[in-house]
Fold these 3 entries.
Entry 1:
Amino acid sequence: MKLISKNKKLWITFYHQSKRYRRSLGLDDTKANRKLALNTIIPEIQYKLNQGTFFNNDRASKPTVAEYAKISFALHEKERKPSTRYDYETSLRLHILPTFGKRRLSSIKPSDIALWQNKLLDRLTPRRVRNIRAVFNGIFEDALRDEIIEKNPISKVKVPKIDKVEITAFTLQEVKCIIEHAKDDLQSFVALGFFTGMRSGEMIGLRWEDVDLDKREISIKRTIKMGEVTTPKTQNSIRTIDIIDQLYPYMLKQFERTGQYNSYVFLNKDLNHYYDIKRIRNTRWKNLLKELGIKYRTIYHMRHTFATVMIEHGEDILWVSHMLGHADSSMTLQMYAKYRKQKDKKRATFLNEIL
């Protein structure tokens, strides 16, 4: 039995029945702890090995995926939004526990992960599988920090590739048609989406106190998802954006509908905020596009349309980036650079004066 140091911690390595084992002693690598390990801990382990009781205790100290997942989720409970916790719990319940729930974390190999991942890809998109895999990876990483496992098996398996999704923005003619034919508050809603690039959760989370019709500004401070009112997606998403001239009359109309309640800009039939964007997307939005004979795209494509149209027509990229709530213009360019129209221009003509 050999005493080794790993990441400034003491471990032992030994062979038992022709199989090699490594175990953490849970001690810092100090002179005093080395003495304790050599004089007390290692002799006790050797005795238990000879008596055949060591691995009984060892198995008891290695939790199953289901057992440790509870610990892992509890560790991050305060830092994750309720909607995120719901998504993680759903991934765990539907896609991780059925295969690995009763397995001990230490028994899972990269090949087990690869086979599981392949089966998921047979029925789920690569993007969804990546999200599920991220949940499982977080559990393994926590176990690694707790020295319950020596290696994270997911790190040895390639992440599924995501095919680049082609953004199919609405044409300006389609935008005009959609806005003109939308009824009641849906008209103001789609105008807001097409003329600001706000995220759908930010739109249903907008309150009248955030709207300054005199200054023609909107302050984005919250978002709503699955009934949860919370802060926007990122720190940069908390922003103040412009009400452009084309949007202004629709905001005035919406104020006439709901401004008196001094509440949310968009209210359901019970005069409460919408629980989730699905309530609009799966009914009124989908029905409107069908009625107009326009190819279905998600509500999020209003945001894409705002970005592509503005960039196509030469609007300041910094302004577009700010309206979208991106961290900086490089993120906006990465997503929408191909929509910039390149004017015919001879490059580097200044060199003619020198060379």
Note: The beta strands are 2-6, 9-16, 19-28, 211-212, 217-220, 223-225, 228-230, 239-242.
Entry 2:
Amino acid sequence: MRLQVEPGRWLYGDTAIHLAKVKVVKRQTRPYPYAWVLTDTTYFFLAGGTMDHNRYPYVVANRADEPRTLSADIVGHSCFADIINLGARVPSSSRAT
């Protein structure tokens, strides 16, 4: 028997910055208020993958000094369970820029 170790994520997991652009902020009022921040990336590019259910720290870079008053899900552009950060607090003026 031989043991092999693949350090992969352990080496790079906490060492990078993942940049994404906000494509659109979607809001609904009925049947209940809800908001999504759709980005041009996907959760599947982030270390940890969907099985680990990681929630990454985030900053809306061009609005970093504004108060985070809107609760929204930050989502990726994939078609399957692409939730990057569930229930994130973002500036209410977040918009595609």
Note: The chain has a mean pLDDT of 80.
Entry 3:
Amino acid sequence: MLAGKSVLVTGAARGIGAGIAEAVVAAGGAVALIDVDPAGADTAAGLGGDAHFFLCDVRSLAEVERAVGEAQEALGGIDGLVNNAGINAYFDAVAMTEDEWDSVFAVDLKAAWMLAKAALPGLIKRRGAIVNISSIQARLTLRGFFPYAAAKSGLEGLTRSLALDYAAVGVRVNAVAPGYTDTRLVQEWLGLQDDPDGTLQSVLANIPLGRMAAPREIGNAVVFLLSEQASAITGETLAVDCGTGARFAT
């Protein structure tokens, strides 16, 4: 579905980002992996195909502009941008400091704008697409996820706004909202619980499909939204949550 296309994926060293990069390559596309983690180089090398890695701290506009420029040069242009970079955040609203708030929003929301700012001129020329990786937490949250849920809600608002602003020049902007996904971040969250095994069983019991999604399944949804198969879709959020958002918890 992406033959001849080039896609830039942030936060791609591991987890969902690596799953997205894998899906892009499997769909025939070239991919630029961006991450602050040098392990992204090994991820890119393991993908085969046309995969490149660029070290970048997405909190810095200068680094973002450099990395996007290098990716465009290596790939001959970019047809798709996937804003996946993100961090979990577990704070109390009273105890949280201003610096901690800024650090969360710098990665989970501001970075998506900066990547779009740097990539949009090229995407406009190629009538490309953007996919932002949101979360089920944008609309259905749990205790202890402040301010992660707020940042992801903002990301979906950014998605809708950019979709409207750039529809006239042929750039589509959508989001994917994963639910529980089998990644290091989810394992990290489970590890913070008093009874990690019991929490995991409770989580799985409340997922209609009875399991977490795999990173590659998120990647498959992203590839669809980047491709011409989704040519009439913009400004939307696609849930990939094994049915979690379709039910009340019991």
Note: The chain has a mean pLDDT of 94.
